[in-house]
């Protein structure tokens, strides 16, 4: 973790581990003014298909993903 303080603050605000890590690392690698400027393109998990959610869960190695419903996958991804 390149900016542990920022990571902890983002986690306390409710961001997932992966999102907080990505933002903290990006902030450490660039000027803080442009962090997050590219965001907002992926849309809500609610708009994804179960197959897309499952694929993302595979990437994040979420346990039990093969037995999860679409709603359960969304919950697991949001809490990762």
Automatic annotation (TrEMBL):
Positions with biased composition (Basic and acidic residues): 1-16
Region Disordered, annotated ranges: 1-47
One Pfam family recorded for the sequence: Rho_N
Segments forming domain Rho termination factor-like N-terminal: 51-77
Identification of the protein by name: Rho termination factor-like N-terminal domain-containing protein
Phylogenetic classification of the source organism: Bacteria, Bacillati, Actinomycetota, Actinomycetes, Mycobacteriales
Example GO biological process: DNA-templated transcription termination
Coiled coil stretches, renumbered: none
Natural source organism: Corynebacterium genitalium ATCC 33030
Listed Low complexity bias regions: 17-31
